[in-house]
Amino acid sequence: MAKLNYRTLRQEVVDEIRQKILTGEFKEGERIKENEIATLFGVSRGPVREALRQIEQEGLVHYERNVGCSVAAITQKDVYEVCLLRAALEVLSVKLCHGKISKGTLDKMRESVQRMKGMETDLYALTQEDKFFHNCLVEEAQVSRLKHTWWTMGSNHAVLLCAHQNGTKTHYDQHLELLQCCESGDTAKIVEAIKAHYNLKTDYVQRTQLQI
Amino acid sequence: MAKLNYRTLRQEVVDEIRQKILTGEFKEGERIKENEIATLFGVSRGPVREALRQIEQEGLVHYERNVGCSVAAITQKDVYEVCLLRAALEVLSVKLCHGKISKGTLDKMRESVQRMKGMETDLYALTQEDKFFHNCLVEEAQVSRLKHTWWTMGSNHAVLLCAHQNGTKTHYDQHLELLQCCESGDTAKIVEAIKAHYNLKTDYVQRTQLQI
DNA sequence: TCACATGAAATTGTATACAATCGTCAGTAT
DNA sequence: ATACTGACGATTGTATACAATTTCATGTGA
């Protein structure tokens, strides 16, 4: 009864590997050998393989047949792509709920923003918090596949990178701004805020002046 | 040298299972036992597990821990969701290439539409052709993650269902219409055509009058 | 020196074997 | 009759073992 919601080895390994990639312990391009991971975590290769395949889906690692698995190199283009997709999906969410974001969700977002205040140096924690914040928006639409698509897009890595590049405003400021627009209940205003939020993140998008 | 691009067992099994689900051989809610599949295809459980996990990502099957895997039941809401997402992603693609679809792509789309002419009864083939057609649009944006997201959305099943429900126009007619708009090079026109294309597919979308 | 063949080591791909968990169905007490 | 208990079978979760492929170093010949 104690192990009501215990987790499978695969899930544990997924989290471990993901963290090690996001914190930079596993560097871009570095090879990930199934056996190494397995002995490192004290498990067999089975769960490791399954975990790596899932992480591959998220775009954090790359498999080459009969050669192996390596940490995906995140280019400027990847950052651009992830921002593009996240923006599109979040805009869709807002449109679906007609800009009306429930009080409960707004509260969660406010708390999230407050937590960001003291995190500006801990990039990994910031990434997790960023995911939580934006997930609130995506959840509001109550479209399960939209949420699933958003989550499995492998946005982590790219967003983390963005944190480095964006020195003008703190994450706290950026999300506070977005949050305030969300409180307005005005679809158009929120949509613009989302676009601005992601445009800020990469000058590539700014340069090409994309109308998302 | 002959097996220059042979495929791994996992990939083969993925295709086999996918086909069996889409053709209705594996029915909604039906349990899929790893051992059964393994002996059926003459392979071991390893590749079967990996294949099923991938198909789970696509939303065609569902795993329950220590219980098993079953074919996902596709509801009206699923159809709605997939149409919503496909529309959003395809609209994004068109906007990214400013409505200018290359001649080569248009040619491929024309050929695809022609092939649809004689397929109206073969739902599986139709689904594959539908994917090919729409993939042309998504590829045009040259955003690899956009394409990846579109593909791993598990659109197959829902689209197949749509084929049943939509008696007003043949698939050939629907895609011919869309193709003709694509030839115009006018972003707004194409976007409207895409929305109409997917709105047609499910009255749910029509009822809610969603502005994608 | 360079191209190419060759073979061993390492790694992934696949198969088999064992362990843990869950569902079922008698059986029993209330 | 019903609710609970417990053991059995079936299925998934995990570990180990083997096969196939690739890589890399080494050696050989021109």
Give me a quick take on this structure.
The structure is a homodimer of 212-residue chains. The first copy, chain A, has 212 residues and is mostly helical.
What does the model show?
- The structure is a homodimer.
- Chain A has 2 domains: about 5-70, Arc Repressor Mutant, subunit A, CATH 1.10.10.10; about 75-210, Four Helix Bundle (Hemerythrin (Met), subunit A), CATH 1.20.120.530.
- Mean pLDDT of chain A is about 85; it is low at about 205-210.
- Chain A starts with 8 loop residues before the first helix and ends with a helix.
- Chain A has helices at about 10-20, 35-40, 45-60, 75-95, 105-115, 125-140, 145-150, 155-165, 170-185, 185-200, 205-210; strands spanning about 30, 60-65, 70.
- Chain A has a 3-stranded antiparallel sheet.
- The relative contact order of chain A is 0.13.
- In chain A, helix 4 (about 75-95) runs parallel beside helix 6, helix 5 runs antiparallel to helix 6 and helix 5 (about 105-115) packs antiparallel against helix 9 (about 170-185).
- Chain A is mainly alpha-helical and about 210 residues long.
- The interface of A and B includes residues 81, 88, 210 and 212 of A.
- The first copy, chain A, binds a DNA duplex (30 and 30 nucleotides) through helix 3.
Please give the number of β-strands of chain A.
3
SSE ordering of chain A: HEHHEEHHHHHHHH
Proportion of residues in helical segments of chain A: 55-70%
Average pLDDT over all residues of chain A: 87
CATH architecture of the largest domain in chain A, by name, is Up-down Bundle
* Percentage of residues in strands of chain A: under 5%
CATH top level class name of the largest domain in chain A: Mainly Alpha
